[in-house]
Design brief:
The complex is a heterodimer of chains A (197) and B (231). Chain A is mainly alpha-helical and 197 residues long. Helices cover 66% and strands 0% of the residues of chain A. Mean pLDDT of chain B is 69; it is low at 81-146. Classes of the chains: A mainly alpha (197), B mainly alpha (231).
Amino acid sequence: MPSVPPSTAALERPTWSGTAEARAPFLSLKDFEELYSAYFHHVTRWVRAFGCPPADVDDVAQETFLIARKRLAQFEGGNAAGWLYRIAQHVTRAHRRRAWLRRVLHRDPDARASTNGASPIEALEQREARAQMHDILSRMTERRRTAFFLFEIEGYTGEEIAQLEGVAINTVYTRLHHARREFMTLLARSEGEEKTP
Amino acid sequence: MKRLVELPAEDRLTARAHVLVRALGSTVESNERLQRVRRALDAPKSRAVPGWALRVALAVALLAVTAVAAAGPGRLWSALVSVAPAARPSAATAPTTTPSARARLLTPPPKADGAPLDDDSTPVEAIAPASPSHRAASPHLPAATSSSDVARVHEAAMALRHDGNPARALQLLEAKPVNGPLAEEALALRIEASSARKDGQASKLASAYLARFPNGRYRDLAKSTLSGRAP
């Protein structure tokens, strides 16, 4: 069972949908506040699914909303979640491109993973499991990885992912099917590699 | 469609997959985090350098490095001397013109304020204190390659980490303020360099860092500098 399924109420029952008109010409700052409150936690999940390091999630979410606020007037209403999702995707990609330089300049701060009060052995096991998971996910294609992460880890439904990605539900299930198969193959390979000295 | 963790762990691999999925865990919702990022959205932020500008700067830096590499050392030297004639009198006052003395003369002095050094073994620096024109003539300060923030920060990082020369790193970083996406890295590098030099500026820089980037990536470095521990 998943640990705690995330609240997806904002996606199922949008608290913010632009204006009544399908093509709202302008949105006020009040709309931004509603947008922010309704989608902040979703954005943090999305950027994680796009492969953002945990330590940078807040920064990327902040940048996403900065861009959203700047472009609010250009938003034509409708699928606010999909609109934000695409902004978050672009921001995360740009962030990952810059990440290599940060790694060159400084020792990677993400290496300090939180232990959440676990014992040293548990913490070590958790860290190893997370590292293995990141390694496997990094070998998957972006589309499959994102669908897999949103569905298996963050607990989104297929319909919600379809809404975010702007694709048909069957496309999402196809991606999930292939993603899971690829994940299990990579996991088997990873476990096999671990066995060999 | 059932989730992976809802499927029965019939084999070892599926059981391991459950462990891995649970180890990563879903994102924890936090109102404190929501409010913190919301506050940061309204905080004044230095203007980010657009991506195209960064690319142009990198291309220019690359061209400059190629040009410098293509030029012979002798031609480079004569070009530098002709560009900065103010450096010549200082060089002329040097008691010796041996290659090592010249190299030391051209090396930026270890103290940024140009104070004369007590050490008798370093007379060249005392005779020729640093001046802006002198700095401009130094072949160790390739102005062309540091035309972009990226090149400058990278060079400072190399000076600090690779060459173990914090004075040079500070000189590069303080020559011109670094703005944009690397501002945080530049400030963190200055803290490290100041700590290495023990010039008393490190805590001031650390306070500035924490004020500007309260949740920054290098806050541990800043905090440890403020508390007097070695980073």
